[in-house]
Amino acid sequence: RLLASPTQVPAALREWLTVSLTGSPCGNDEIAQQTYTLNVTPEGVRVQAATAAGVRHGLATLTQLVMLTREIPCGVIEDWPAIAKRGVMLDVSRDRIPTIRELLSLIDTLALFKCNHLQLYVEHTFAYAGHAAAWQGWSAITPDELRRIDAYAAARGIEVAGRGVEDEIAVPIADRRPHECVVGGERLLEDVLLLL
Hints:
With 196 residues, the protein is α/β, with parallel strands linked by helices. The chain is built from 5 helices and 10 strands. The chain has helices spanning 11-14, 52-68, 100-112, 132-135, 143-154, and strands spanning 17-21, 36-41, 44-49, 75-79, 87-91, 117-121, 159-163, 171-172, 179-183, 186-190. The strands form 3 sheets. A 4-stranded mixed β-sheet has the order 1-3-2-4, covered by helices on one side. Helix 3 (100-112) packs parallel to helix 5 (143-154). The two termini are 29 Å apart.
């Protein structure tokens, strides 16, 4: 479960794949936590990393190679990100609101690109407790759906943060920190997830 990955490594390649999780890297550097080595030889493929994040990134690179060519060249790739946090902000309050299935598919794509942060901007598209008038008729994301999105993303090494109306600070959902938002002109102190 710790090594959950969205990568679609073909079954034929899995029998040639060895994953080695070596333990904590030196120090607590976020970049070192995401470093990996991918070694391709005629005998097989080995992904080695100190953490699950590194393994996920190595498997993502392997998947990218498989997508580009059916014959993976022999060689060694040692890789790490240039910056620790990489991601996107998605405004789900404009135009066509994505379905949960579409959001989960986006999370898989972000993981394949080794992103580790997704910020969802919601206004009238989150089912705020006690404020149904603000979101009725908009296919709003419910707290349970948001929990599902958060768990799905976390299994792929992606932190989900929520932003609401006039919310000036992105709040990681997993941290359960409260944030302020304005709904219907009323100032509320709420948590993006614990709105029940």
